[in-house]
User: What shape does this take?
Amino acid sequence: MDYKAAGAPKMAKKGPKHEEHNAHGSQKKPFGQRPSKEELLARMKKAAEAKK
Assistant: This one.
């Protein structure tokens, strides 16, 4: 008996398992531009101030 051929086939090891629903460049964020680091830091600081 060939035990090597038994069982489920092996899945591919490379590549993403899924795609995010709001990934950059997708339908919800069509232009795919990531915010710059300065914009991100400003937004984070604003959110931290709002929590205080």
About this structure: The mean pLDDT is 78.
